[in-house]
Amino acid sequence: MSTEHAREKPASSPTLSVCLIVKNEAERLPSAVESVKGVATEVVVVDTGSGDDTVPVARSLGARVLEIQWQDDFSHARNASLEAATGDWILCLDADEKLAPGQQGKLRRLLSGRADACYVMIRSPMAGHRRGQTFVHAFQRLFRNRPQYRYQGRVHEQIYPALSAAGARLVFSDLEIDHSGYALAPHFQESKLRRNLSFSISISRTARMTGLSATTWAKPTRSWGKRRRRGGATIWRSGSGTFPPDTLLRPTRIWRAFC
Prior knowledge:
Elements: H1 3-6, E1 16-22, H2 29-35, E2 42-47, H3 54-60, E3 64-67, H4 74-84, E4 89-93, E5 97-99, H5 104-111, E6 117-125, E7 134-144, H6 160-165, E8 170-179, H7 186-204, H8 211-215, E9 227-230, E10 233-236, E11 247-249
Parallel strand pairs: 1-2, 1-4, 2-3, 6-8
Antiparallel strand pairs: 4-7, 5-8, 6-7, 9-10, 10-11
């Protein structure tokens, strides 16, 4: 046997599927997709009924596009993207988000780690009278591609209950995602709030709201649940105990986001 054939093949690197759900995001989608080029094996875009050029733009960026009917259920759309993913790992993004500059090396290291899922830091610059402040929170956006890991909840969908039920090993990471959604003009913010509030009212008529959904409508600067310290950040717990620490806030002023 030749030396060339006897040489062991190097272990292949873990693959990554970046999954997005979108509607009328032709303008913002390119920034999200471009931010993961070089680290993503594939980009899966689930379109829920765009009336603009979102679908052709996504395809021109090399994304695999699925067009589905919107069912007033964010988890349904999010899970459709997970079902289509073929990578070893999944990173979920929104169209108004992007992997922050200089983060691809961190992401690759996480993919080679022993965890099953990772909290990532989502940084949201504020608008209006809070301009200059940045709201930072952490969610489980990066996780292994396993069929038992699926989102729950029609609005403010969560994957933590599935991760917890499966005994997933979760770690906090300093991987950063930039989110521009809180810097929107006030009328866009109000539109999102009205949409989410309408969903939550509908949900509350048929089932108990989750700890996160029930607190989404708290007034700014009103704290909720218990807090503790971790890594220099304040972590707020859902008062119901439904979810683990899901919000890390670094600004000195603590408040719950409206969207």
